[in-house]
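Final report, section 2: Outcomes. Of the targets proposed, Acetone carboxylase is the one most frequently requested by collaborating groups, and we therefore present its record in full.
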Amino acid sequence: MVCSAKGCRQPAVWVLAWNNPKLHTPDRRKTWLACDEHREYLSRFLGLREFLKEVVPLDEWRARNDA
Ligand SMILES: [Zn+2]
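The predicted structure is given below as tokens.
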């Protein structure tokens, strides 16, 4: 699992869950992965568009979605 930032090859440690209300139903979640370095950058990108729903550690996201 690699960070979603363009050109980044760092292992992802964060999941950014987002939703574009023009494209997705409200309960749908798209996800981006982020390393520590790019978490803030990617969060801001989604936050400015008001798409960002939550930022969750990758381990927690997996645990939640395996349950
Ligand atoms: Zn990165």
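The pocket of zinc ion is lined by residues 3, 5, 8, 10, 34-35, 37-38 (CB under 6 Å).
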